[in-house]
Design a protein that fits this description.
The chain is mostly helical and about 200 residues long. It has two domains: about 1-95, Cytochrome c-like domain (Cytochrome Bc1 Complex, Chain D, domain 2, Orthogonal Bundle), CATH 1.10.760.10; about 110-195, Cytochrome Bc1 Complex, Chain D, domain 2. The protein is globular. The protein contains nine helices and no strands.
Length: about 200
């Protein structure tokens, strides 16, 4: 019931800034749940799924938004992170990181989708000349590279293009800008098809 209520609220507040939200009596992670859902599986693709995500990655991105090193469309995250009490960050990241991983999107029953999936899988696992395999960083051992399987396809696509266009350069310590720069549009599409349709486990 509570998840349903938060989902309904999401439709009304996605364009609101943090200062316009009454946070009284809300658990620290509930304000995040307004957009990312309390189960960590957001309804809208513009908001990434946070369920099961690495705590250190979540914390790092929180501070990237808070310190204006990263931005999103409309600046909602910059505003919201500025109003979250720093002592609550560990509670928030612990909550979302312990939720079950999201389910992948079903692959369309078309030969082209299956071909794209296979090519994306190969690129993720093996890479190609000039590009390291994505799984070199996006794995359980690398604490600051996020899990990206079963993520919203449109979100993944936007992040790849943001890296390619240099819109996420301010975060530092990530090779993603140079990697995305060398990915073709077709390769990005193939990666997205594979990732959104694959379980994290």
């Amino acid at each position: 019931m509570r998840i349903t209520l938060v989902t309904m609220m999401l439709l009304m507040v996605t364009e609101l800034y943090a200062g316009m939200i009454d946070k009284n009596d809300m658990a620290p992670w509930e304000i995040c749940g307004l957009c990312h859902n309390l189960d960590g599986i957001s309804v809208m693709a513009k908001f990434p799924k946070l369920a099961g995500q690495k705590r250190r990655y979540l914390k790092r991105q929180f501070y990237a938004f808070k310190h204006q090193k990263r931005s999103n469309d409309g600046g909602q995250m910059n505003a919201i992170t500025s109003e979250v009490d720093p002592k609550d960050i560990d509670k928030i990241t612990r909550y979302f990181s312990t939720l079950p991983y999201p389910r992948p999107q079903l692959l369309e029953n078309e030969s082209k989708s299956k071909t794209d999936y296979a090519k994306g899988k190969l690129l993720f696992e093996k890479g190609r000349k000039g590009i390291e395999p994505c799984q070199s960083c996006h794995n359980k051992q690398h604490l600051f590279a996020p899990y990206i399987k079963a993520q919203h396809g449109e979100y993944l696509k936007k992040q790849l293009y943001d890296f390619k266009l240099g819109l996420r350069d301010g975060e530092g310590l990530t090779p993603m800008s140079s990697i995305a720069e060398h990915l073709t549009d077709k390769e990005m599409h193939e990666l997205v098809v594979y990732l959104k349709s694959t379980h994290q486990l």
